[in-house]
Amino acid sequence: MTTDWTRRTAAEIADALAAGEVTSAEVTQAHLDRIAAVDGPVHAFLHVDAEGALAQAAESDARRAAGAPLHALDGVPIAVKDVLATDGLPTTCGSKILEGWVPPYDATVVAKLRAAGLPILGKTNMDEFAMGSSTEHSAYGATHNPWDLDRIPGGSGGGSAAAVAAFEAPLALGTDTGGSIRQPGAVTGTVGVKPTYGGVSRYGLVALANSLDQVGPVTRTVLDSALLHELIGGHDPRDSTSIDQPLPPLVEAARQGATGDLSGVKVGIITELSGDGWQAGVMTRFQESVDLLVKAGAEVVEVSCPTFVHALATYYLILPAEASSNLAKFDAMRYGLRVWPAEGASAEEVMRATRDAGFGDEVKRRIILGTYALSSGYYDAYYGTAQKVRTLISRDFEAAFEQVDVLVSPTAPTTAFKLGEKLDDPIAMYLNDLATIPANLAGVPGISVPAGLAAEDGLPVGFQILAPALADDRCYRVGAALEALLLEQWGGPLVPPEENLS
To answer: If you read the UniProt record, what top EC class would you report for this enzyme, in one word (predicted)?
Structure first.
């Protein structure tokens, strides 16, 4: 019987490579064939580098034949969100203003992938400059959810989540500014991790909001996320926000959690992240997951974080302000798109025409909001006040973690909504990040683990676990325990119906 390597986890592929059961070239080709077969309707990828991936796979096979693999994941293919600089491959950030731009260097996390021998399959679709919750704001067309092609795959990293959910890649990198790894994970039935802020280098990440952005893993299992997280994490002297201390033992924590024993772990349910406006099917699956944590030996209590109700408003003042500043560099003078509105046009006219043609509506909306919040006379009232509330949110986290080891909530208030349903209502779109934003404001780590399918629509639900800064291992231990108990209950992983992808 022929093995379908696209259905194997990254850990299983790594073990098979080590045992000589398969070659990296075979695994990589299988995923490239899968991309060719199903990515038309899914549109997870913006650029596929078949030639480069196969060349990297051949190099991996040669190393392994010589007895010198570089890493446990050497030879396991991966996809990369198109917001991370990749030497020799286009990096567009889902925007027309960077169409065709090829960076002359790699982001630190990409350099680590190459140094460990992981073939890079290509770059995945995203909301333009990571601004969105649905991947509908990409200048190159929306990505579709493999569970239902009429639904969104989450955002901004919907491309990476959809690629992993559709078995086009066993691993992917995403970035999480307000939930852009975890929320796509929830709605596509994948595992998404936001590491502690500063725990993974941001060098070479095209910034949306410097104080919020974080690179992290997108996978199908908690163990795969731990393996990838340990690879990409650690101190980077080129990133001034990078934490100069080693990561906790993430893989060990995931393996420990997979035993299903959470004795001695105290879990806090965040009371502010439930109630009116939360889909009934989401809350049902959440409560069932909490019951499984109790079954595993965890003590569960309710914890109040009062300032979390202000997190959404706080985030949508801080993020646009930082985005406005960051995107000022796209001025048509140095790189990227340049539009000449008329012969003899001034630099200001060229800049105005270029930014008008190169940026989409959502990016323009946030630039305007951010510029206003930073303007003279309004800075203290808006941006300054938001930063004060951010401090209060961090203090709520600190107080909560004095009582419990981890905090839990649904990852998103609803399952995946229909494409186009919220495009004309930005506020409704922003509400999808209600549960994920607090972690970015405080810099704490979080993971979203698939928690089953909602009864109303048969679509995936995510279960979010948050831990104190630098205690990422707690997310992996609790996440792996829940995953193991759910897999036992389901009799195997939940996968999107194959007929959806034809």
So the answer is: ligase
Measured in degrees and rounded to the nearest 5, phi and psi for residue 409 equal -165, 165
Alpha helix ranges (H) inside 296-435:
311-326, 347-358, 361-374, 385-401, 426-430
Residue 205 has pLDDT above 60, yes or no: yes
For residue 482, give the nearest of 292, 208, 343, 349 by alpha carbon.
292
Contact, 94 vs 46, CB < 8 A? Answer: yes
Q: Is the N-terminal amide bond of 156 cis, ω within 30° of 0?
A: yes
- The single residue listed with the structure tokens 């406006």 is 277
- Summarised one tens digit per residue, pLDDT across range 379-431 is 888 999 999 999 999 999 999 999 999 999 999 999 999 999 999 898 889 98
Instruction: List pLDDT tens digits, range 157-184.
Output: 999 999 999 999 999 999 999 999 999 9
The residue among 343, 367, 390 that closes a domain is 390
Alpha-carbon span 2 to 18, nearest angstrom: 19
Put the strands of the sheet holding 120-124 in their side by side order: 45-48, 120-124, 78-81, 171-175, 215-219, 191-194, 446-453, 460-466, 406-410, 266-270, 299-303
Q: Are 128 and 93 in contact (CB under 8 A)?
A: yes
Q: Give residue-wise pLDDT tens across range 9-22.
A: 999 999 999 999 99
- How far does the chain reach from its first CA to its final CA, in angstroms? 23
Which 3 state secondary structure label does DSSP give 191?
Answer: strand
Residues 70 and 185 in one domain: yes
Residues forming the active site: 81, 156, 180
Domain boundary residue, one of 329, 357, 390: 390
Same domain, 9 and 25: yes
Identify which has the larger pLDDT, 147 or 426: 147
Phi/psi at 294 (5° precision):
-65, -40
Indicate if the pLDDT at residue 1 is higher than 60. no
Q: Could you tell me if 229 and 247 are in contact, meaning their C-beta atoms sit under 8 angstroms apart?
A: yes
Do residue 408 and residue 492 come from a single domain?
Answer: yes
Under DSSP, is residue 406 helix (H, G, I), strand (E, B) or coil?
Answer: strand
Provide the pLDDT confidence category of residue 500 given band limits of 50, 70 and 90: confident
Domain that holds residue 249: 5-308+391-501
Residue 409 pairs in a beta bridge with 464
Q: Quick check: 8 and 16 in contact, CB under 8 A?
A: yes
Share of the chain above pLDDT 90, in %: 93
Q: At residue 435, what is the residue type? A: A
Q: Are 90 and 120 in contact (CB under 8 A)?
A: no
**pTM to 2 decimal places:** 0.97
